[in-house]
Amino acid sequence: MKTSFSLVAILLATLILTACSSQSAAQRNLQTEQLAQRGNLTALAVETNLPIKAWGRIATGEPIHVYIEGDGRAWRNGHLPSLDPTPHDPVGLKLAAADTHSSVLYLGRPCQYLMDTTRGCHFSVWTDRRFAETADIKAALQQLTGEQEVILIGFSGGANIAIQLAAQFLQVKEPHMKGPQVTGLVTVAGNLDAESFNRFHRTAQEKYGHNQALLAALADLPQLHYTGRKDRIIRPELTHQQLADIQSSHCVQINEVTNANHNGPWQIDWSAFSALQKACGAK
Fold it and tell me: Can you give the residue ranges of the Serine hydrolase domain (predicted)?
């Protein structure tokens, strides 16, 4: 009888926790939708293998500011993968919603906001393979932008993806691939290179996201990199280390934000980026 009662109690507790978790996820999704709406961003449909959530407003003939979200909630703690990578604090989406430019696109990372195990959403996608899964973001970008001019903006781990995409679309890696014209790169608290990041933090090396060679190849692309002096994840000295080989380029600029930690507050100065583009073109 005691065993039966204990089993019922455990099952009841599990149901309550599941309901609370579902309610919390539903509330977060509602808040995210409201954030996108406040930024005049509408949901956009894309056809990809892994699900990609997209919001935006795209004006024909205008350069598109393309925001790529960070890693989201990849881990429940330091050792256990999350069951859903949707970010609790979608900094990339906040930046996109605050952008007053006429043409803005936001791309979540695979399975964020659209967790679906029937479409390949396995925890490896947002943990050890999070910097390997670029094909679906690239496909979404191609579908939504065609061959228009784009500036790629990556937050945190999204910066690593933005660098890979910039290299691919600028034909550094794939000479015959069609896609948007990448004319600039902005990173915010960006994990620019996984190898140097893990070496800096003395953590285990990862198989993917090693971008030092790509950064060198992108030295002539206008790049504005934001780093926060209160950020304990992407420290300013790490950003300077990662960009040491190209920091002397007229096209590369690092802006240190005094009061910013990893999640902000962040604000992209587009006038500074325009000035950087001119300086880069005049070198």
Answer: 151-249
